[in-house]
Amino acid sequence: QVQVEESGPALVKPSQTLSLDCIITGDSIRRSFYYWNWIRQPPGKGLEWMGAIAYSGNTYVSPSLKSRTSISRDTSKNHFTLELGSVTPEDTAVYYCARAPQFGIYDYWGQGTQVTVSA
Questions:
Q1: Alpha helices, DSSP H only, in 19-78?
Q2: Whose CB among 24, 28, 51, 103 lies 3.0–4.6 Å from 61's, allowing a Cys bridge?
Q3: Helix, strand, or coil here: 76?
Q4: How far apart are CA 3 and CA 20, in angstroms?
Q5: What's the CA gap between 89 and 73, in Å, rounded?
Q6: Mean pLDDT across the chain
């Protein structure tokens, strides 16, 4: 059974960098041809795709976040990491990681982790 689980701080101060990990069990982050995604949902708003890392290691980031977002992976630990820099209160959201067998189609989601940006 594939599981993905988000891990990271619940509270981040403005201007800091948010770092979240997604731990994968039951699958390999290198398995062809899957994509591993970060998606968030601000309060009262819809889901926003942030970016993904492919089985190959290639990364894709939403143009609106590209200047302050990076996604990386640790294949030895079978996890991938989101780093979002210069956070503001507008980055307050529930952050999800999800597996996609095709770009944009998700089959496994984490339960989500609430991140609040506040001084």
A1: none
A2: 51
A3: coil
A4: 16
A5: 26
A6: 97
Per-residue tokens: 96: 């999800």
Residue type, 53: I
Strand ranges in 13-91 using DSSP code E only, listed in sequence order? 18-25, 35-41, 48-54, 59-61, 69-74, 79-84
Give me the residue label for tokens 């290198």. 30
Residue 98 DSSP SS3: strand
The predicted-structure confidence for 83-119, as pLDDT tens digits, reads as follows 999 999 999 999 999 999 998 899 999 999 999 999 9
Amino acid letter at 27?
D
